[in-house]
């Protein structure tokens, strides 16, 4: 379980722009569901972007013109017989607001208007869409989410991420082939947000700790690494000669049941053990932690194991509480890492 308000806090760590004054009300306002929260963030973000000016890009246009502009398309001019009307087909670049990212913004806002969000929010989105009269829309199933952000379009990075969560994370297909909006982010998207939140929390509040999502090299005897998979950690904390590798897991069930016995997810345990042992081969004190988002199940993992000289702990993070308590839980992990060699004990 997770409180809707805490999703905002998680997003605020994942996207630092949400800490700006324009988004401050999202941290205290009550929301009916996750859709309402994301639509509020999107509305405020679009409002800020409109004040800055909607991003523009050069778009190639081709049309018959009476006055020359750009390059003449002789083939099309002959094909369309535009000479009869004393025109030539010209191809030219138009500096337009009808950019790909603006199309995604408009498409997402129009999508939200079709679903169950408060009337006041719908009215806000309807007013914002008026600024997009010269912007087209796009098929939600064919959007290319691979963007290159630079100094000119950096302000769109968070907006595109929110649009992605709304379109990819909140839509599901019904039996009749139509789509409906889910009230909560699906497990896959929440897992990515959960990882990013924990990483950025430690990075912000514990600058003395080197915090990164680092790759781990294989401890190879002969140096041959062909076809070996990449070992990519979610969060790696490094302080002096100590390393804590955290795998953040957001599942509907924190444990698996086998023959009426609750056990840890075997793949998760194998993975963190592999990460720890290969990292330990480079030296230093290395420990691992599986950090599950707490569920409403009666049995929650809370164990520490000593495995071949390295500690592997399994913990849960309660997200269904005041955010200050979430912070306390994360602070405890970091403080134990800083001051104790017995991580997670």
Key terms for this structure?
alpha+beta; Trna Endonuclease, Chain: A, domain 1; 3 domains; three-stranded antiparallel sheet; elongated; McrC; hydrolase activity
Please describe what this structure looks like.
The protein is built from 9 helices and 15 strands. It has 345 residues and is of the alpha+beta class. It folds into 3 domains: 4-55 and 98-185, no CATH class; 63-96, no CATH class; 189-339, Trna Endonuclease, Chain: A, domain 1 (3-Layer(aba) Sandwich). The strands form 5 sheets. The protein has a 6-stranded mixed beta sheet with strand order 6-9-10-13-15-14, sandwiched between helices. The chain has a 3-stranded antiparallel beta sheet with strand order 1-3-2. Strand 14 (303-307) and strand 15 (310-317) form a beta hairpin. The longest helix is centred in the first third of the chain and has 19 residues, at 34-52. It is elongated, with a radius of gyration of 26 Å.
CATH class of the largest domain: Alpha Beta
The tally of beta strands, per DSSP, is: 15
How are the strands of the biggest sheet laid out side by side? Answer: 6-9-10-13-15-14
Overall 3D geometry?
A: elongated
GO molecular function: endonuclease activity; hydrolase activity
Protein name: 5-methylcytosine-specific restriction endonuclease system specificity protein McrC
EC number: 3.1.21.-
InterPro entries: McrC (IPR019292), McrC_bac (IPR014407)
């Amino acid at each position: 379980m997770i409180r809707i308000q805490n999703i905002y806090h998680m997003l605020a760590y994942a996207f630092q722009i949400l800490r700006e004054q324009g988004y401050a009300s999202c941290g205290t306002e009550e929301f009916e569901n996750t859709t309402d929260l994301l639509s509020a963030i999107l509305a405020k973000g679009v409002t800020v972007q409109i004040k800055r000016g909607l991003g523009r890009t050069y778009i190639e246009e081709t049309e018959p013109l009476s006055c020359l502009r750009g390059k003449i398309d002789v083939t099309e001019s002959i094909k369309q017989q535009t000479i009869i009307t004393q025109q030539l087909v010209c191809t030219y670049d138009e500096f337009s607001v009808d950019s790909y990212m603006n199309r995604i913004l408009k498409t997402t806002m129009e999508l939200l208007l079709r679903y169950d969000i408060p009337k006041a929010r719908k009215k806000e989105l309807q007013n914002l869409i008026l600024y997009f009269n010269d912007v087209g829309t796009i098929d939600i199933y064919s959007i290319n989410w691979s963007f290159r952000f630079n100094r000119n379009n950096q302000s769109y990075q968070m907006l595109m991420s929110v649009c992605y969560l709304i379109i990819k994370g909140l839509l599901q297909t019904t039996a009749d082939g139509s789509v409906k909006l889910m009230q909560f982010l699906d497990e896959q998207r929440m897992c990515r947000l959960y990882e990013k939140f924990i990483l950025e929390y430690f990075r912000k509040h514990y600058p003395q700790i080197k915090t990164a999502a680092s790759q781990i090299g294989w401890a190879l005897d002969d140096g041959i690494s062909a076809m070996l998979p990449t070992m990519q950690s979610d969060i790696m904390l490094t302080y002096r000669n100590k390393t804590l590798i955290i795998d953040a897991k957001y599942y509907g069930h924190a444990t698996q049941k086998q023959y009426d016995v609750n056990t840890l997810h075997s793949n998760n345990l194998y993975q963190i053990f592999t990460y720890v042992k290969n990292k330990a081969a480079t030296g230093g004190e290395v420990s691992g932690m599986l950090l599950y988002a707490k569920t409403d199940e009666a049995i929650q993992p809370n164990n520490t194991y000593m495995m071949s000289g390295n500690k592997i702990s399994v913990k849960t993070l309660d997200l269904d509480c005041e955010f200050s308590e979430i912070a306390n839980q994360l602070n405890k992990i970091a403080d134990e890492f800083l001051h104790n060699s017995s991580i997670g004990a």
